[in-house]
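Entry 14. Ran structure prediction on the chain below.
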Amino acid sequence: MVNLREQRKIENQKKIIEVASDFFSNKGYQQTTISEIAKQAQVGVGTIYNYYSSKGVLLLAVFSNFMERLKDEGHQEIEVNKGNIIELLTGFMKRTTLVFEQFPKTFWREIFHVMTEETDETRHLRKSLFGFDQEIISWVETIIVAHSDCFRVSVDRKEASTAIYGAAMTLVMLYIYDDQMTYDQFLIQLENQIEFIFLGKLLEG
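Output, structure tokens:
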């Protein structure tokens, strides 16, 4: 059973993450101060530093929170009904990458910059993200296996799943660092990449 002190800590951290998320996404990481976050969250500056040793660590905590939500959503039942496999895979990858549209590109650039630092927090987060990478690849493989009868030639499901994930992550990086690229353009390119991977391998009709 969680005591009142522990419950207060959990509530404080939740509020801090919510407020920091709003500030980082709307004002920008560099332009946001810990004092602003503390005031809006109605906690002391020292309280934030008790939980997060720096603003960079707080940014990573915000990102980690997003990824945990994404994992929870991903664990929902995967669409394996019969249908167009290209559309199913594109739809799944859209749900997986939708988080990148929810915040400005500058927000994600700042996260990736902070993640290159060698700290215990960044190493832990990179390890966690690697595990999530494997989950996504596994989910894509599940869809491919469920639709194995739509292929006219033998397809290595593991290679195909890894190729789709690799294409999606490459496009994510292009999207984040290209100010002119819209999310809709990202999705069109993603569908084109998936079609290319299965070019000549699918049955007609």
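The chain has two domains: 1-51, 55-197. Will compare against last week's run tomorrow.
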